[in-house]
Design brief:
Shape: globular
Largest sheet: 5 strands, mixed
Strand content: 25-35%
Distance between the termini: 46 Å
Strand order of the largest sheet: 2-1-9-5-6
Structural class: alpha+beta
Number of helices: 2
Helix content: 10-25%
Order of helices and strands: EEHEEEEEEEH
Radius of gyration: 18 Å
Length: 160
């Protein structure tokens, strides 16, 4: 992660897990695979070996990214950023595949519709040695993100 000079294609993305927030500068068209590697490198460079009891994975493929259901209210929850491959039927009765690892929606922040300053959650894939690659646990849909509130920082007005 060499330092970079600011330019219009350089975005700041906010990555959150539990009470941890990490800001990364990324290119709009940078692949999510390299962003995940940058995220792991940033965590390791800070001297941490894990976050909230979870140890860091060795491979960027074991990092799962999520986006808020409502970008204006992260307390409503998170969904996986990666869109799984699906087969859809068009109006003429033909079928086509959308999503999946090679989809433009899964390739970069720009392709995923993110903006500069976007907030993403991250978690680590649970790896079981007995599982095939297709069976790897991508999580249970629960995201460990704690958003600070005004009351947490300053207390309620009734405590004066």
């Amino acid at each position: 992660m060499p330092s970079q000079e600011p330019h219009p294609q350089l975005w700041t993305l906010r990555f959150k897990q539990h009470k941890t927030s990490i800001l990364l500068f990324v290119e709009q068209t940078q692949s999510f695979a390299s962003i995940k590697q940058d995220l792991l490198d940033a965590i390791k460079k800070s001297g941490r070996t894990g976050i909230n009891g979870q140890s860091l994975p060795s491979k960027p493929e074991d990092v799962i990214l999520g986006v808020p259901i409502d970008k204006n209210d992260a307390s409503k929850g998170w969904v996986d950023l990666e869109i799984p491959e699906q087969e859809l039927e068009d109006i003429n009765g033909g079928k086509r595949k959308v999503g999946g690892k090679k989809s433009v929606l899964n390739s970069s922040p720009l392709g995923a519709g993110l903006k500069d300053g976007a907030m993403l959650a991250f978690k680590f894939r649970e790896v079981d040695e007995n599982m095939d690659e297709d069976e790897l646990d991508t999580g249970d849909g629960n995201w460990d993100v704690i958003m600070p509130s005004y009351e947490d920082e300053y207390g309620s007005q009734s405590q004066q």
